[in-house]
Amino acid sequence: MVTHRQQVLDLTLEHITLVGLSIIFAVLIGIPLGILITRVPQLSKAVIGGANVIQTIPSLALFGFLLPAPWIGERGGRLAVLALTLYALLPLIRNTYAGIRSVDPAVVEAGRAMGLTDRQLLFQVELPLASGVIVAGVRIATVLSVGVATIAAAIGAGGLGEFIFRGIGMVDNQVILAGAVPAALLALSADVGLGTLERRLGTLRLRS
Amino acid sequence: MPVVRVTTGQAPALLMTPPASDGPAITFDHVSFRVNGRALVQDLVLSVNQGETLVLLGRSGSGKTTSLKLINRLLVPSAGEVRVNGRPTTEWHPIRLRRSIGYVIQHGGLFPHFTVARNIALVPQIENWPKEKVEARVQEMLTLVGLSPELLDRYPQQLSGGQRQRVGVARALAADPPILLLDEPFGALDPITRSEMHLEFHALQQRLKKTVIFVTHDLREALLLADRVALMEGGRLIVSLPVTEFPHSQEPLVRAYMEAFSTEPR
Fold this sequence. Notes:
The complex is a heterodimer. In chain A, about 80% of the residues lie in helices and about 0% in strands. Chain A is mainly alpha-helical. The longest helix of chain A is centred in the N-terminal third of the chain and has 38 residues, at about 1-40. Chain A starts with a helix and ends with a helix. In chain B, the strands form two sheets. Chain B has a six-stranded mixed beta sheet, with helices on both faces. A four-stranded antiparallel beta sheet of chain B has the order 2-1-4-5, with helices on one face. Chain B is α/β, with parallel strands linked by helices. Mean pLDDT of chain B is about 90; it is low at about 1-20. Chain B is globular, with a radius of gyration of 18 Å. Chain B has a domain at about 105-175. The interface of A and B includes residues 110, 124, 125, 129 and 206 of A.
């Protein structure tokens, strides 16, 4: 019982690491890309389309594709983080783009007319006003990643999927649940936590 | 020829410093503006003197807002040039130019995530004025537009329409720009608040003597506030007359405006 609890804890931490790292990478890549396509709209179709295509690849297949890649393929963990990052890109790019585009054009124009530089306009007006929508993107990506990360166990990346695959092999529901329940709890708490932040940023935009 | 003058927009000390320059503040020199081959403004020739209030009157689509945006280089002419203090807008650094021109639009265009204080302080802040000076300036502006200091920490959504427009005017005036552009600033207000704002704005302008370009479709507003009225239609200037002469013009479109005005239910 004690060893089981320790194992659940270890695998949960591994799971959090996988998801956490990939969300950090996805934020670092996705938000700048989202900003870029509001500035260079000609790129928006290609970028969003590309991210869309990645998202349509079944996760198990994506893990399999990346397996032969040098350096990345050597360790399951690296590979899983790369695949999860790619999956998380779409909601981040799309929400950053949509968030900035949804800012009242009259406010942006007033800012420009008052003599704000492009950079000031972005950091003082557009990003703060889009922050609620962007955090919604982070929330969607996180919840998604918690689920997809369970499949990473299939390529030896660890995480709570270990229990699920082991349980399936042993035809033992209890073992499956030992993986599934913590994963569900992780997804729920990410949803609630980021949802709260999102609402707080949302009221920042329309305080009354 | 107008004197070429570089306005820095930097830290003016007093409110009541009329810009010292001899030539017109703004000159439209055969300006056209086209989008996809459609002319929104055609061959506009017009100049605005220092300290003058010019009202651009016209229906929607007459090109008056477009003309306004050509002044602070939100738009660049397709032909001809717009000169601000004798210098073509295309030769100005756009950021410098805009910071020396106040801009007020219909719903204020206030930043919804900024408090009233931060909204008013916008230009002084990005111009890196020292903190105490910014604060003093915000207080001064608040008094100038007749707002109570307890509103400083409110957000735009918590204000009435009239209060929002006052904040908009205060923000536009905060860095003491010599030129003020207003695009139907009082258009969305109820009639009582609007006439209050007219009186206040008129009094303010008597004191400040800014060069003002005021866009409206409301003849009554034009006659109340203007030194000179420029009537536009279909992207062209029809007439530009001192406000005292405007009602007596024999120009058919002016007659049409005057008739619509006199039959307007009160």
